[in-house]
Amino acid sequence: TLALRTWRAAMTGVTTRFEEAAVRSVDAVLVENAAMLDWVRSAGPARVVKAAPGVDTALLRPAPRWRAGGHLLSVCRLGDPRKGLDRLVRAYAGMVHRCDGVPDLVLAGRGALPAPVRDLVAELGLTARVRVRADVRHADLVELYRGASVFLQTSHEEGLGLTVLEAMSCGLPVVSTETAGSAETVLDGVTGWLVPQSPDGEVAAAVADRTLRILSDPGCDFGARGRERCVSLFSSAVALRRFTDVYDDLLRADRPS
């Protein structure tokens, strides 16, 4: 609604002013992506470091063999409109229209699927093919990743997108809209596909096309490459080291000679 958009814009303005004051008063700022890096640098702190959080790559391991017949999966806060689940449902409808044998779509995550998205699923005749797993336990979530064929994300914005990293850690190819976060995690054409955000009316068709392209390639190695990238750059150990290196440097600089 207009009132909600106005309130969000006002709160964003207030928060931005506090953030600008805060980053000017600290010794170092750690950020998740390149867009945040540029913004914080423009505010003038002495040191800005890109240090994304990581995932447990030992727990989040791939299934013995990737298979194109596994379900399609998206994991997010189900009630958050920024996740663009309406675009995902339309993309899935396009896949079904082009290939009736496409696997079921599983929408998992915290919260409940909003009524407009549920209505869209019904309107498009997908009720029997779209499964919702709300507030799924972490152990069950790992199995959902391991049983999937492709991970899908159609967010309008993401700071990083930990679920993309979890999917990559489990050896899944990723099809995602291009956000500040997915630009950090997904290598387009190497570990998955990035779909431009505009024109918005073409996003669903592009997601459908990229997904079907992966499913039609039994030798697709996007998932294996994504697993390698996740282990080398986004494992918990690697991510923690980025944080501790900054703290160690600051502590050394603060010690008297």
Question: How would you summarize this macromolecular structure in one to three sentences?
Answer:
47% of the residues lie in helices and 14% in strands.
How would you describe what is shown here?
The radius of gyration is 20 Å and the shape is globular. The protein contains 10 helices and 8 strands. Strands 5-4-3-6-7-8 form a 6-stranded parallel beta sheet, with helices on both faces. With 257 residues, it is α/β, with parallel strands linked by helices. It has helices at residues 2-23, 34-43, 85-98, 115-123, 138-146, 162-169, 182-185, 203-215, 222-234, 236-254; strands at residues 29-31, 48-50, 71-75, 105-109, 130-134, 148-153, 174-177, 192-195.
What is the gyration radius calculated from CA atoms? 20 Å
- Beta content comes to 5-15%
Strand line-up in the sheet with most strands: 5-4-3-6-7-8
What characterizes the major β-sheet? 6 strands, parallel
| Number of helical stretches of at least 4 residues | 10
Helix content: 40-55%
Query: What number is the mean pLDDT?
Result: 92
Molecular shape: globular
Low-confidence stretches: none
Number of strands: 8
Distance between the termini: 59 Å
Compressed to H and E, one letter per element, the order equals: HEHEEHEHEHEHEHEHHH
What would you call the structural class? alpha/beta
Write the layout of secondary structure elements.
Elements: H1 2-23, E1 29-31, H2 34-43, E2 48-50, E3 71-75, H3 85-98, E4 105-109, H4 115-123, E5 130-134, H5 138-146, E6 148-153, H6 162-169, E7 174-177, H7 182-185, E8 192-195, H8 203-215, H9 222-234, H10 236-254
Parallel strand pairs: 1-2, 3-4, 3-6, 4-5, 6-7, 7-8
Helix pairs in contact: 3-4, 3-8, 6-9, 9-10
